Amino acid sequence: MLTKTGAAALAEHDHHDHPPSHSVFGFWLYLMTDCILFGTLFAVFAVMQNQFAGGPSGKDLFDIQGVAMETAVLLLSSITYGFAMIGAHKQRKGQVLVWLAITFLLGATFLYFELHEFAHMIAEGNGPQRSAFLSSFFTLVATHGIHVTFGMIWMVVLMVQTLKAPELGDREVRRLSCLSLFWHFLDIVWICVFSFVYLASVI
């Protein structure tokens, strides 16, 4: 039988062997660097938004109804990811996997809309080389799309890890929480894109 002193020593030993994870804090730092990246791209767009080089403006190109639908899909994906996190905290693997799968499908739908818009604009000769306005537009929106793609790949990896895990422990929940921060961050960035790029250009 362990004495109080022995139990305390064992607890201290376990604490040193398994120090608390700082991954969530580290991920917050990563998101701050992403904020700087997107802030820079927004600043470039603000400078270039009226540099049309005789080409079409955003008012001529953007389909606000289609972009609004695209925005609704991404916002809905944040809600479904929230349901996945509720399932994770309740230790319900099945619920987590179902909601992650739905979130993945919504993310894929968002990317489909985005790629369709790009393909349509390029087919009409309005690619990124057409003007400074379009160069800054394609760079900003495509950078966000690349982030969404990375998030979806990460989501598949977490789904496989969740499926293989005997139970949802602290490590699995922590990984899901990091992706949750990333996914919601992309939502916030897209709201800014929708407001300052699409709506402002049309108005």
Automatic annotation (TrEMBL):
<keyword id="KW-0812">Transmembrane</keyword>
<comment type="similarity">
    <text>Belongs to the cytochrome c oxidase subunit 3 family.</text>
</comment>
<dbReference type="InterPro" id="IPR000298">
    <property type="entry name" value="Cyt_c_oxidase-like_su3"/>
</dbReference>
<dbReference type="InterPro" id="IPR014206">
    <property type="entry name" value="Cyt_c_ubiqinol_oxidase_su3"/>
</dbReference>
<comment type="subunit">
    <text>Heterooctamer of two A chains, two B chains, two C chains and two D chains.</text>
</comment>
<keyword id="KW-0249">Electron transport</keyword>
<dbReference type="GO" id="GO:0004129">
    <property type="term" value="F:cytochrome-c oxidase activity"/>
</dbReference>
<keyword id="KW-1133">Transmembrane helix</keyword>
<keyword id="KW-0813">Transport</keyword>
<dbReference type="InterPro" id="IPR024791">
    <property type="entry name" value="Cyt_c/ubiquinol_Oxase_su3"/>
</dbReference>
<feature type="transmembrane region" description="Helical">
    <location>
        <begin position="181"/>
        <end position="200"/>
    </location>
</feature>
<protein>
    <recommendedName>
        <fullName>Cytochrome bo(3) ubiquinol oxidase subunit 3</fullName>
    </recommendedName>
</protein>
<comment type="function">
    <text>Cytochrome bo(3) ubiquinol terminal oxidase is the component of the aerobic respiratory chain of E.coli that predominates when cells are grown at high aeration. Has proton pump activity across the membrane in addition to electron transfer, pumping 2 protons/electron.</text>
</comment>
<dbReference type="Pfam" id="PF00510">
    <property type="entry name" value="COX3"/>
</dbReference>
<feature type="transmembrane region" description="Helical">
    <location>
        <begin position="96"/>
        <end position="113"/>
    </location>
</feature>
<keyword id="KW-1003">Cell membrane</keyword>
<dbReference type="InterPro" id="IPR033946">
    <property type="entry name" value="Ubiquinol_oxase_su3_dom"/>
</dbReference>
<feature type="transmembrane region" description="Helical">
    <location>
        <begin position="27"/>
        <end position="47"/>
    </location>
</feature>
<dbReference type="GO" id="GO:0005886">
    <property type="term" value="C:plasma membrane"/>
</dbReference>
<dbReference type="GO" id="GO:0009486">
    <property type="term" value="F:cytochrome bo3 ubiquinol oxidase activity"/>
</dbReference>
<feature type="domain" description="Heme-copper oxidase subunit III family profile">
    <location>
        <begin position="1"/>
        <end position="202"/>
    </location>
</feature>
<keyword id="KW-0472">Membrane</keyword>
<dbReference type="InterPro" id="IPR035973">
    <property type="entry name" value="Cyt_c_oxidase_su3-like_sf"/>
</dbReference>
<dbReference type="GO" id="GO:0019646">
    <property type="term" value="P:aerobic electron transport chain"/>
</dbReference>
<keyword id="KW-0560">Oxidoreductase</keyword>
<feature type="transmembrane region" description="Helical">
    <location>
        <begin position="67"/>
        <end position="84"/>
    </location>
</feature>
<feature type="transmembrane region" description="Helical">
    <location>
        <begin position="133"/>
        <end position="160"/>
    </location>
</feature>
<dbReference type="InterPro" id="IPR013833">
    <property type="entry name" value="Cyt_c_oxidase_su3_a-hlx"/>
</dbReference>
